[in-house]
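Handoff note, outgoing to incoming analyst
You'll be picking up this chain. Sequence as last confirmed:
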Amino acid sequence: MDTADQEREKLLRAQAVKLCQSFVQGRSPREILDDYFIPDRNGQGDSTCRPKITEHGPKWAISRLPFLSRTFIGRDGKQDDDDTSQKEGTATDETCDAYFRLLAATLEFQPDEDVFPGPEGFAVDIYCDDKRLDQISGPDSGSNPSSALGSGSSDPQAGSATTAADTGRDVASRGGVVTVVGRASFSSKKTGKAWKEQFIHRLSGFDGLGRIGHWEIWADPLSAWMAVGGEDGDALSS
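Most recent structure output, in case you need it:
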């Protein structure tokens, strides 16, 4: 790996660490999207340069967890202090801002200092891109978290596999994938029921400044489903 590649790897890891720290610090969704994601250039005639968020999960869970199983694209321009109906969002909202509104209206994140590992726990591949990710796990890898790590492996490094042919291509302008596994407690806003879970974040589509194009999440939708429904079960004690 030459010096430019090493600097690229360092940049992507640093940006991913900062993003994850922003969740723990409780920064607002608007600040997170503004600071760490690529800008939405759809209004400037570039429909391909838009931030995306996908939280994978079964479609049957959408009735209780409306932020699951679809990709939120772009920004909506609403401010954090907009009225309550805008902050809660609706199931038809499709922007990245709406993802955060739907999530916040449904679940509460209970962070602590051990949610994410240190920088060495973030697996980085500067040569991988969204096209290669589709080859590894399919364009929609659904609710199976192992697909985020590549070919069913439990090793985060496996999701960063490249071939020798990939290493020569220019990644200065866009590309790269970062994967990290976190652990945290969540609770239902509706019922107050809480659970602990392990989840995977996969970041891809980075631009030349290290801003993120696509954030994907694989979490524990069954525990969330049961908590929102006020149901008890083994999933809630995991």
